[in-house]
Amino acid sequence: MATHSALTEQLKRNFGFDSFKGNQEVIIQNVLNGKDTFVLMPTGGGKSLCYQLPSLLLEGTAIVISPLIALMKNQVDAMRNFSEEDGIAHFINSSLTKQALEQVKSDLLSGKTKLLYVAPESLTKEDNIEFLKQLKISFYAVDEAHCISEWGHDFRPEYRRIRPIINEIGEAPVIALTATATPKVQHDIQKNLGMLQADVFKSSFNRPNLYYEVRPKTKDVDKEIIKYIRSQTGKSGIIYCLSRKRVEELAETLNVNGISCLPYHAGMDSAQRSENQDKFLMEKVQVIVATIAFGMGIDKPDVRFVIHYDMPKSLEGYYQETGRGGRDGGEGQCIAFYAYKDLEKLRKFMQGKPIAEQEIGNQLLLETQAYAESSVCRRKLLLHYFGEEYEKDNCACCDNCMKPRKFMEGQDILLSVLETIVEVREKFKAEHIVDILKGKETTDIKTYQHEDLESFGSAADEDEKLLHAVIRQAMIAGYISKDIENYGLLKLTPAGKAYIKKPVSFPIVQDNDFEDEDEEPTAKSAGGTCAADDVLFSILKDLRKKLSKKLEVPPFVIFQDPSLEAMATTYPITMEELQNIPGVGAGKAKRYGEEFLKVIKEHVKENEIIRPEDLRVRTVANKSKLKVSIIQSIDRKIALDDIALAKGLDISELLDEIEAIVYSGTKINIDYFLDEVMDPDRIDEIFDYFSTAETDKIEPALKELGEDEYSETEIRLVRIKFLSEIGN
Q1: What was the pLDDT predicted at 528?
Q2: Concatenated DSSP letters of 333-364
Q3: Residue 351 above 80 pLDDT?
Q4: Which DSSP category does 175 fall into?
């Protein structure tokens, strides 16, 4: 057993630190004593050192099983920087050439290498197992150990094979490390690695320097993010999205709006990913937009904001990702955008999976939803999720604590909840308990004949969200617990049983009310517009009318109402700004733009208007590859129904895309298709109608031309021809 001073001396000599952080010293001492060790330590707490230092002090080579190639490279480079000998640390994974692999093996056999990082996939290869049997193994370190558990946020089936392989290579002590584990996941890890008797070292999960906030995700989310990043000049940040497509699109949007950023996701080739990661570490770019593939083990201490464009699939994922912020103890703003619709999409994606997996995924999503919608201190909620109690009622560092909260007395509802859990013998989940209280006759309720219970319908008048809020807050207060083995079943704690006998006041906080992102804004009074400046909107409409008479084209051919509304809201005064108005595009801007810009400039000057130019989100030029591809197909005279088929669209969706193209001023010619599918007289009749029509809407056209005579598709096709020839 090494003394305190000897260990501190080794720490200083090998890593240049004067003292240990938190539990590091006792953990290292435990590993040196040859005991199985389980380490729960939040991101930034210094987990890596817990196996790096003992590996240098013990005889043999320590094997570190780690899931990410980027993390291995990062850590091996760091170890080599601390040592004079490059061979001190190596990794084996799929990225190595045959020659590089031979060098690694040679260093291992000669005893130079103290630390060998291995991907779990490489560990399972037979020839690697045979080779590792020749080495003296000091201990095994299983990093990111939550990957073992299906309840963890990053489950990897190959992690389940680690224990049998350790037994095959040769037994040695095991240290398992993770930055996120609920009591359920912790049990799973220990059971699977055969280390239920391990010494457990758990550091607090509280990151006092992180500020947590959840915002409703509206249609203007891109604009909100741009505005926020512009307020964070010179500060590094990460934005997490769930899909690769969204990563690419958002990175492009941020770049055209003057924010230096790069994308990062598993679909990019590894060289490009490494390059983008390095540029972020070297501060050549301010922001990385990434899927969850980014950031594990990447030690950038000064990430000042972490934005979740989409809510993650689990609270563990959320905690892990927000943990990238403020690792130096400085400021770390964690902002998540939440829309219930996003979680519904995630539920749909799970439908093809095995039932057990769906069940787990759904429970994890419910926890995420609860976190987002709850008005309770976010720190308290997060820490409770990881089995840690946060004593304060107000952390003063999350959005819920920073705003006045609505409290109400919850004693009666809590009593009903506790009594119902007892009535069903603690064998059901929160959703089922709420259905009983609401008096819902669901299939499950009927199956178990729970409509006959005394508590059935006892809280029928209460809001469902409120009942869920009471259950969650009762868990935090210690009256209810969730069964670890049967995740989700509600049990009463001794305190809960005592509460039934002697109830006391139970003030609860009402949940936040998140509008759905797709709800339309409330309509203004009749005759109102969606333009911010009604006066300018009227001026622009008059100008459009004047031009329409002069050019002898209907007003809608020049610009549609939504385009004028956008002009009367963002006040474009340059040709470039005008092109970014929805439905304008380069063609229309050139053809009709000058006069509109002149009028807007005068209006802005006369009324001393401060333009919201800094809030305007520039759209990516030719953003849609689909539109470009459609134009090219039409140029090659491919039939529209064939184009639709090739693009996986129905004909109506294809016409939506083509209409967007012509409304923004691009000229296209679909005569070749019209001549195939429509009689020339019918084409002429619809064309003539639009020449004198007041509006380009379909309903009045059907009414005028006769619904029995013409179909909506025919009218839309000829409208495309008309707009392209007359307007563009």
Answers
A1: 42
A2: EEEEEE-HHHHHHHHHHGGGS-HHHHHHHHHH
A3: no
A4: E
- Which secondary structure element, helix H or strand E, spans residue 92, and what is its range? strand 89-92
**What is residue 52's predicted lDDT score, i.e. its pLDDT?**
92
Average the pLDDT over each of 265-279, 332-346, 459-473, 549-563 and give the range with the smallest value. Answer: 549-563
- Can you tell me the distance from the alpha carbon of 500 to that of 477, in angstroms, rounded to the nearest whole number? 14
Q: Measured in whole angstroms, how far is the alpha carbon of residue 679 from the centre of its chain?
A: 51
Q: How does DSSP classify residue 515?
A: P
Percent of the chain, pLDDT > 90? 31
Cα distance between residue 229 and residue 214, in whole Å: 16
- The helix-helix angle for 4-15 and 24-32 (nearest 10°) equals 100
- Cβ burial of 340 (10 Å; 0-12, 13-18, 19+) is middle
Nearest CA to 489 out of 478, 502, 476, 480 is that of 480
Contact by Cβ (8 Å): 189, 36: no
Phi, psi of 701 (to 5 degrees): -65, -45
Neighbours of 63 (CB within 10 A): 25
Domain 625-727 belongs to what topology?
Arc Repressor Mutant, subunit A (1.10.10)
Taking residue 360's Cβ as centre, other Cβ atoms within 10 Å add up to 21
CATH class for domain 210-401? Answer: alpha beta
For 590-641, what is the HEC assignment? HHHHHHHHHHHHHHHHHCCCCCHHHHCCCCCCCCCHHHHHHHHHHHCCCCHH
Q: Are 627 and 609 in contact (CB under 8 A)?
A: no
Residue 419: which pLDDT band, with cuts at 50, 70 and 90? very high
Other CB atoms within a 10 A radius of the CB of residue 520 amount to 6
The mean pLDDT of the chain is 84
Residues sharing a CB contact under 8 Å with residue 354, sequence separation 6 or more, in sequence order: none
What count of other Cβ atoms lies within 10 Å of the Cβ of residue 587? 18
> What was the pLDDT predicted at 439?
94
Question: What's the mean pLDDT in 602-618?
Answer: 69
What's the pLDDT tens digit per position in 669-720? 999 988 888 888 889 989 988 888 878 888 888 888 887 788 888 899 999 9
Q: Hey, do 406-509 and 534-615 end up sharing a CATH topology, with the first three levels equal?
A: no
Are 369 and 344 contacting, i.e. CB atoms less than 8 angstroms apart?
Answer: no
pLDDT tens per residue, range 20-43: 888 899 999 999 999 999 999 887
Q: Tell me the CATH number of domain 4-202, given options 3.30.70.1150, 3.40.50.300, 3.40.640.10, 3.90.230.10.
A: 3.40.50.300
